[in-house]
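in:
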């Protein structure tokens, strides 16, 4: 029976590529459309060896020979690649094929079938490439995290923690813990624990949000370092499944930024006008960033001590962070420095002392400060010298309270650097204070106490303003004239320096001489006119205001007042039985040293028994940003409220009522009393 012959045309519309060869030369006698689509134009009637010349085709040709020789079908399941035309966007195709012996009208031959696997190969290749890229990305990320000293961790929804990129044990000296339990929080700085827990809960509440927080961790060496932690929530199908986070050491960056900020703020010390304010600004520099509390003690020096080795300190400034007990008030209390403090003063090196809260070593600070340290739970005190021009002028005491550990070396070095940066402004402030003190001594030496006058009461006050080293030209004067009447003067020389104070002394002495050597024709206006002319002729030219007043007894405890006002705030009369009123006049005389030839006027008023007369300088009624009328009204109201007080207490109360005493204030008060007894001799001769 004849062997059935294959009719290849049945494969014309097959989706599989089909080709038929004939004879030992493997002449291509048939190929369907799918074959042309896969392999491109391959003309029939030619050997397969001529039609397929791509690299690696020999194995295909060998398969054709073997199938035709032994009649056994063969297949290749490993994808093969063939180049295609330029119109093909891929440029090549992948396929697998099989070869089967057949007999057709062309004689014995081989049936070749090929399946296009290009899409499958590309998909597998892309999946492999993506997997490789992800692997490489993970490897790069892990290498990056290691390079920047970050540890990476995972927190599951149940709170368990996994360390992905290790580093916790190296940082803290403790193994990684799988939960944030009490032992884990023991490694966190006591002052940071509550804030850390609160921030984590805020991030996890409601719809989870990014967690980001900085806090301090105790290292393997026992010191604390700042670290920054950041974590993002992973949500799948609307449910939080885990957090992925990273933690990095930011201590160096934090300390550099803190150092820059503190050193920049040190210039604020230059704005201080008093030593108290300057040293308070120093305390503000270091609290709470570097210490919980800071107290500055100004050293009084050995020259003020009865013992050659004794050094005293005055608590001049003190500041504590929020959450600690209120600090004791500054009362200028002094104390004798103990051995540790004296060692700091002598060696100019800081000393760190540790103790239990109930056992603060004696001699470190005053007893009142020691009691405060105990209430604040202080466990360490760092004494640092404040050195200016090679001398230790003050001592800073930085306290660690309420569980805060003693400061480390880096913190102490930064404290020293901040104090050193403040040396220049502190030096300026102390020099200004010394200058001011010298000027005040000079000024107070000129402002003598009022005389004792029978039948009257006198009180005087001088209060310097709060300007750094500035002293004004404010003055008062009171003296008995040869005829037994009383002369009162209040004056103010423009300026706030030693020149103003010196000019004030000259004008005061000249007016004293002019008024004392007067004849019966000399009125207060005449005395001021003579002073104006003398100051102009002698070159003691300075803008000044003044009131010169004469008081003479009239009987029954009353006094007759005559005065002249050279551009000064008006006197205030406080009657014994009526409201206070200012003694104003229609004539407004010019201040001194403006126009010496201009006429001056004398005014008169009666001072009854029990009445009070106040002469004052503008510092008592002038407040920056306030209308002068408001200041005058405030003075009148305060005088009415205190009219029954002893004269000295009334003066003190009036000074206390000034809301912002920036300028110097001179004040002299006169109160008429009952007439003196005949047995009482007259006032002594001032000479």
């Amino acid at each position: 029976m004849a062997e059935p012959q294959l009719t290849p045309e049945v494969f014309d519309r097959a989706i599989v590529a089909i080709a038929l060869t004939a004879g030992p030369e493997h002449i291509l006698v048939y190929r369907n459309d799918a074959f042309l689509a896969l392999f491109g134009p391959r003309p029939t009637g030619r050997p397969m060896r001529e039609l397929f010349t791509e690299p690696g085709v020999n194995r295909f040709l060998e398969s054709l020979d073997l199938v035709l020789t032994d009649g056994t079908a063969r297949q290749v399941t490993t994808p093969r690649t063939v180049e295609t035309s330029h119109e093909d966007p891929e440029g090549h195709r992948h396929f697998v094929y099989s070869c089967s012996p057949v007999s057709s009208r062309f004689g014995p031959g081989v049936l070749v079938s090929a399946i296009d696997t290009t899409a499958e190969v590309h998909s597998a290749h892309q999946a492999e490439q993506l997997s490789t890229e992800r692997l490489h990305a993970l490897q790069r990320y892990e290498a990056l995290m290691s390079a920047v000293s970050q540890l990476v961790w995972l927190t599951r929804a149940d709170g368990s923690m996994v360390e992905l990129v290790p580093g916790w044990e190296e940082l803290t000296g403790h193994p990684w813990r799988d939960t944030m339990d009490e032992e884990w929080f023991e490694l966190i700085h006591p002052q940071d624990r509550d804030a850390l827990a609160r921030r984590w809960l805020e991030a996890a509440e409601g719809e989870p949000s990014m967690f980001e927080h900085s806090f301090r961790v105790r290292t393997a060496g026992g010191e604390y370092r700042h670290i920054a932690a950041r974590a993002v929530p992973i949500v799948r199908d609307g449910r939080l499944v885990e957090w992925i986070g990273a933690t990095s050491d930011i201590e160096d960056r934090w300390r550099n930024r803190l150092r820059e900020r503190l050193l920049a703020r040190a210039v604020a010390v230059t704005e201080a006008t008093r030593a108290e304010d300057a040293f308070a600004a120093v305390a503000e520099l270091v609290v709470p960033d570097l210490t919980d509390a800071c107290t500055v003690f100004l050293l009084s020096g050995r020259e003020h001590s009865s013992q050659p080795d004794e050094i005293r300190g005055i608590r001049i400034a003190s500041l504590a962070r929020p959450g600690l007990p209120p600090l004791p008030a500054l009362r200028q209390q002094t104390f004798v420095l103990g051995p540790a403090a004296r060692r700091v003063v002598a060696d100019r090196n800081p000393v760190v002392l540790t103790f239990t809260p109930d056992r603060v070593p004696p001699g470190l600070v005053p007893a009142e400060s020691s009691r405060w340290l105990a209430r604040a739970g202080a466990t360490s005190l760092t004494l640092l010298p404040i050195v200016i021009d090679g001398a230790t002028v003050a001592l800073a005491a930085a306290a660690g309270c309420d569980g805060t550990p003693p400061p480390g070396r880096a913190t102490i070095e930064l404290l020293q650097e901040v104090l050193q940066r403040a040396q220049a402004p502190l030096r300026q402030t102390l020099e200004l204070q010394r200058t001011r003190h010298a000027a005040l001594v000079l000024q107070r030496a000129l402002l003598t106490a009022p005389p004792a006058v029978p039948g009257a009461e006198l009180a005087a006050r001088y209060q310097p303003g709060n300007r750094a080293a500035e002293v004004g030209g404010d003055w008062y004067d009171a003296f008995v004239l040869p005829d037994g009447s009383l002369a009162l003067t209040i004056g103010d020389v423009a300026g706030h320096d030693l020149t103003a104070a010196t000019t004030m002394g000259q004008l005061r002495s000249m007016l004293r001489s002019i008024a004392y050597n007067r004849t019966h024709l000399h009125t207060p206006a005449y005395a001021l006119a003579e002073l104006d002319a003398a100051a102009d002729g002698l070159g003691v030219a300075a803008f000044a205001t003044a009131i010169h007043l004469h008081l003479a007894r009239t009987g029954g405890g009353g006094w007759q007042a005559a005065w002249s006002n050279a551009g000064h705030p008006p006197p205030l009369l406080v009657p014994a039985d009526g409201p206070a009123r200012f003694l104003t006049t229609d004539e407004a005389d010019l201040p001194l040293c403006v126009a010496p030839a201009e006429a001056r006027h004398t005014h008169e008023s009666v001072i009854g028994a029990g009445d009070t007369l106040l002469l004052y300088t503008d510092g008592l009624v002038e407040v920056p940003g306030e209308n002068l009328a408001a200041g005058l009204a405030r003075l009148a109201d305060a005088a009415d409220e205190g009219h029954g007080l002893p004269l000295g207490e009334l003066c003190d109360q009036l000074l206390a009522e000034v809301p912002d005493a920036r300028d110097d204030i001179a004040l002299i008060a006169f109160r008429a009393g009952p007439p003196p007894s005949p047995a009482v001799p007259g006032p002594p001769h001032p000479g």
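note: Residues 302-306, 679-687 have pLDDT under 50 and may be disordered.
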